[in-house]
Amino acid sequence: MNLAHLLERAALQDRARPAIFNGTQCVATHGQWADRAARVGAHLRAAGLQPGDRVVLFMRNHPRYLELLLGAWWAGLVVVPVNAKLHLKEVRWIVDNAQARWAFVTADVAPDPTALTGLSGVMDADSAACDVWLGSGEGLPAITERAPDDTAWLFYTSGTTGRPKGVMITHRNLMTMGLTYFNDVDPIDPGDAIAYAAPMSHGAGIYAIPHLMAGARHVVPASGGFDAAELFKLGLALGPLSLFAAPTIVKRIVDEAQSQNLTPEQCGQSFKTIVYGGAPMYAADIQRALHTMGPRFVQIYGQGESPMVGTALSRTHLADTAHPRHAERMASVGVAQTTVRIRVAGSDGEPLPVGEVGEVLIQGDSVMAGYWHNTEATAAAIRDGWLWTGDMGALDAEGFLTLKDRSKDLIISGGSNIYPREVEEVLLTAPGVSEVAVVGAPDPEWGEIVVAFVVPQPRVALDSKRLDAFCIDQIARFKRPKRYEIVDALPKNNYGKVLKTVLRERFVFTQGTLQVLGAYRTTDLHVAADEADAWLEKPEQGKDVASPENPV
Q1: What's phi and psi for 176, nearest 5 deg?
Q2: φ, ψ for residue 181 (rounded to 5)?
Q3: Which runs of consecutive H residues, i.e. helices, occur in 136-207?
Q4: Which of 119, 132, 160, 273 has the least CB density, counted as fewest CB within 10 Å?
Q5: For residue range 330-384, what is the model confidence (pLDDT) as tens digits?
Q6: CA–CA separation, 468 vs 461, rounded Å?
Q7: 286, β-bridge pairs
Q8: Any idea what the Cα angle at residue 152 is, between residues 120 and 403, rounded to 5°?
């Protein structure tokens, strides 16, 4: 079982059917896509790569992404998708950890490809050399056979340790995801089109698989990213689009519809289905979306470790306003998708009664094979065949899952995952920094923003602009804090653990503006965990509360 057989199958059925679009221009039929993928695979094998070797895709959204992705699979290789927003230092770490052999890049994210050391080769997807690879070669090779449990997609997702972990996603995992889409998300016809407005290195990219299964069209916006007005125009030109979007993108699409005074029927001329996930969607936002654009939305919940497969809240569920528990359902993430089981469990792994909060577990053929070269993390994440997601939630009597909190300190900003420990480790290397605690603060636009509480070394005056410049030089821009709070100390329990819950509860909104109450001015603030709430309730005990006389 090799996912490249899906492309071969589509090409055999209709070589002339349009497949890949750059904006409104068709740049490949299914037959051309298959031929180009085969040539890429042949060139990679000629370069010495063997089945199972890793190939990095460090690219912006680009029509050739799909040709190179399927070309690597055609040769039996493992694709390592890398977020185009990452800092080059972070990419080098992934390349080294994955022991990658080759990389395809675009010049806007990798202006100096030679900086990616340790590879046999690096190629710019926009280069003449890539043109040659895609267009030359006769006697195209057969697809390299792969077993269902061979790794196809090595996806790096940061963990609570701050270092990324390579999630080994197999051909079986992605085949399961693709087939599940038809039953739990949306049926697909050959005339349908998926638009890649979110990063193709993540869930949006692997949604290519069910659309490839159906022989549908794949549209990369000419902008290479998200532009709401562009998407409305593309939909009118090519037919209603489907896409995967973070709630931030959904809100901007709805804003655009309202700015144009479009009716739901007019929105339907541009959009067929918008699948949203990756971050919390507030009930008011999805209600506004449904009112403005009509029943074109489906919510999914999954993880990199079970890609795009966990639960789904269908358009039928969202449209069933007469149901007595409709409000609760809208606040949920839906029911288990067909190919998996969902359990809410206690620390012993046993299922909890309906309504009780516990950790969300997933079991099924979508669950990863494990973490790359990390048996300890794999053993912690997969126990007795169940994936422990680290998310906390509760199931109702009808199987609807409502997420309550994350057991990890993950921050989700604009649909992107940001891990506090990773940011903390960078800031701790900045000159003059003694301690750091990074948490997420609620934000109406991004869902959450990153806030760093920074304790300076004695007799050092820290400057937020310098801290920001330091972060920009070390990590991706989207990970850096949007706000820095310079404090004398961090709240800790008797064991010295920073009480991030105390920090989070200092966030308040005044006239729509985020304020941080209580920048800690004491020289040694150690409070017992069971005293934290009392401290918050009695701020007058200290002089550490933000006020006009004592500003943050």
Answers
A1: -60, -45
A2: -55, -45
A3: 171-184, 203-206
A4: 132
A5: 989 999 999 999 999 999 999 999 999 889 999 999 999 999 999 999 999 999 9
A6: 15
A7: none
A8: 125
Which one, of 148, 214, 181, lies nearest residue 337 by Cα?
181
CA pair distance 276, 186, nearest whole angstrom = 13
CA distance 124 to 103: 9
Q: Which residues contact 314 (CB under 8 A, 6 or more apart)?
A: 184, 185, 298, 334
CA distance 213 to 22: 20
Triad 124, 128, 129: Cα angle to 5°: 65
Question: pLDDT under 70 in the chain at which residues?
Answer: 158-162, 279-280, 405-408, 493-497, 508-514, 517-552
Task: Give the pTM.
Answer: 0.81
**Phi and psi (nearest 5°) for 343?**
-130, 140
CB 423 within 8 Å of CB 482: no
Which tokens go with 42?
């042949």
Instruction: Kindly calculate the radius of gyration of the chain based on its CA atoms and give it in whole angstroms.
Output: 24
Q: What angle do CA 182, 183, 184 make, to 5 degrees?
A: 105
Instruction: Say whether 90 sits in a helix, a strand or coil.
Output: helix
The dihedral formed by the CA atoms of 303, 308, 310 and 312, expressed in degrees to the nearest 10: 130
Report pLDDT digits (tens) over 252-261.
999 999 999 9
Tokens (6 digits) for 299? 């919510």
Widest CA span of the chain, in angstroms? 80
116-168 tens-digit pLDDT: 988 999 999 999 999 999 998 777 899 999 999 999 999 998 643 457 899 99
Length of the chain: 552
Q: Are 483 and 449 in contact (CB under 8 A)?
A: yes
Exposure on the CB side of residue 496, measured as CA atoms within 13 A? 1
Structure-token pair, residue 449 = 């923003």
CA distance 39 to 57: 17
Domains of the chain: 1-146 (3.40.50.12780), 185-294 (3.40.50.980), 411-541 (3.30.300.30)
Give the bridge partners for 97, in sequence order: none
Distance CA 117, CA 129 (A): 19
Within 8 A by CB and 6+ apart from 229, the residues are: 256
